[in-house]
Fold this sequence. Notes:
Shape: globular
Distance between the termini: 60 Å
Largest sheet: 7 strands, antiparallel
Strand order of the largest sheet: 4-5-8-7-6-9-10
Amino acid sequence: IQGAIWYQGEQNAGYPGEYAGHNRDLYTCTFSTMIESWRQEWSTATRGDADRKFPFGFVQLAPFTNQRDSLAWPQLRWHQTADVGYVPNDIMENVFMATAVDDDIDLHPKNKRLPASRLAWAATHLVYGMTERPLTGPLLMAVSFKNTERTSIVVTFSENLDPVLVEEDRFMVCCLASTDECDQVAYGEGWQGVTIEGMYSDNAVEVSTASACSTYSGLAYLWLETPCSGEVSCPLYASDEYHLPVVPWKSDVDLSLCPLSTAYTGQPIPILETGELFLLRDTQSGCHDTCLAHPEC
């Protein structure tokens, strides 16, 4: 065989009040182990004719209901990527993904062309070297702050974006001690929605946490069972012809750290004697803004 594609996970995620799910918390381990098991079994049984690392593609769970009491589905989507947020990664090598998070809202979405096209683009990139086609959508690169109060966040991605669709409850912050704790309670008790202010640059979005808790431990995007308003209607998509969405992710945030640990327009340079980071900026005003954003300013 040349490879495999996989679309499953709803029963592992579970359904509020009816079915708690099957080993959802183990899915990070069981899914990646299953992939490696298939590869090993096929390679052994075919005496090496099947590649020991043959490509494996999967579909990230589609939307289902608008309930917000359980966050099982965003958890399962995260576990599908081995808790990294994207594939391939160090745990899931030679694996590709198509998200269906913005497909029509149905347990079994009717628009099969959407995830199928995304799988095809990723497969032709990863397996056949057609790198003009995308392997992933825009990936999270950095989370930084514009002010010392940490109420204004700049989220930077790996490529340019279409203008953001401004809707409520698309970005959210975790108001408990850890994002894992926020995942265990209803939306609004742990994760709370924050406001999309607009585009900060071609590949960055600005959000405001003023409407949520003042102290938070994480930031997430599309962390709901049905996180978008409809088919191909999420806030963030690549600005190229393939129009791939930014997939759901979460990131820990440590408010005790310098808000600009990585410069927006440059890489940090370590000062040898102290080990501290010196931030390169392109303009004098940029240096001034960086200074003002430091917590000890």
